[in-house]
Design a protein that fits this description.
Order of helices and strands: EHEHEEEEEEHEHEHEEEEEEHEH
Number of helices: 7
Helix content: 25-40%
CATH architecture of the largest domain: 3-Layer(bba) Sandwich
Distance between the termini: 15 Å
CATH class of the largest domain: Alpha Beta
Strand content: 25-35%
Length: 298
């Protein structure tokens, strides 16, 4: 029986694991290894890393730090969650069961990224998904928004704060509202509805796209904006946790506990701005209150 089982070894889960390990609790992190931070090649807006740091590197640093405090890690995906008299049981997709007194859901989200393998090495370096994180990276640079419908149009309009050279490629041909089209025209944003046939990228360097009609659009930077991101709140739903209408988990703003006693949530799965720095704070705040309840129980 663990004091706390953390589901998700991303940024929020790791910060919580480090702090709970420092409280001398018995902690297990169950990590599928496929989170958003696992594919980002560079974060640029984190205090202490002015030249950027990749998600995998940050995760590895966090894991090593947590292990120094006795935190255990298992690679696997949590498939089922249930509440018991003594706490919680989590069954992995491999059929193994883990028991804990407390549960922290740090399962995150996953962006809907089109299936062009050339994009993966560019993520966080020359192609981005979050304008709050990386809008600055396209400052005064030609930028292609690869997206769909109003989601892509909104991204293009948002990025017009940073650059005047924007092309929105509506890859899926999803309808764009008239007011969005008018706003893009006013901002001088170029618009194309031909689907993308190929992403022109060489390692981490994005150079543009080739459309299905053979036309090539050159660009220094790219943004992805398709909407429909997967919010990994399935376990929360199984446990009866209250969810926002967009499937993000609702938590107490002070403690990060959900409406289900002894179940906490932290990071991008929670209903807030999806930022590494917020995930760090979430994980820390949740761990403090998890410790308080474990201490009170003793």
């Amino acid at each position: 029986m663990y004091d706390c089982l953390i589901i998700g070894g991303g940024i929020a889960g790791l910060q919580a694991a480090i702090q709970l390990g420092r409280y001398n609790h018995k902690i297990l992190v169950l990590d599928a290894g496929d989170g958003r931070s696992a594919i980002c090649k560079s974060y640029h807006n984190i205090l202490g890393y002015p030249d950027g740091i990749s998600g995998p590197e940050l995760r590895e640093i966090g894991r090593q730090q947590a292990e120094k405090y006795g935190v255990e890690f298992i690679i696997g995906k949590a498939a089922k969650a249930s509440k018991t008299e003594s706490g919680f049981e989590i069954e992995s997709d491999g059929g193994l069961t883990y028991k804990a007194k407390r549960l922290l859901l740090a399962t995150g989200i996953m962006d809907r990224i089109p299936p062009f393998p050339e994009l993966m090495p560019t993520l966080g370096i020359s192609v981005y998904v979050c304008p709050d994180c990386d809008g600055y990276e396209v400052k005064d640079k030609s930028t292609i928004v690869m997206g769909a419908g109003n989601v892509g149009a909104n991204m293009a309009l948002t990025l017009s704060y940073f650059t005047d050279e924007i092309t929105f490629v509506n890859h899926e041909g999803t309808e764009v509202d008239d007011d969005k089209r008018a706003a893009m025209r006013e901002k001088g944003i170029q618009y194309a509805e031909e689907p993308i046939e190929k992403v022109l990228a060489y390692g981490p360097d994005f150079k543009g796209v080739q459309l299905s009609n053979g036309e090539q659009l050159s660009s220094e930077r790219g943004f992805i904006a398709f909407g429909g991101n997967e919010v990994k709140s399935q376990l929360a739903h199984q446990l009866g946790v209250d969810l926002h209408k967009n499937k993000h988990v609702l938590v107490d703003p002070r403690t990060k506990m959900t409406n289900v006693e002894n179940v906490w949530a932290a990071g991008d799965v929670v209903a807030h701005s999806e930022q590494v720095t917020i995930a760090l704070g979430d994980g820390m705040q949740a761990s403090i209150w998890i410790h308080k309840t474990l201490l009170a129980e003793k």
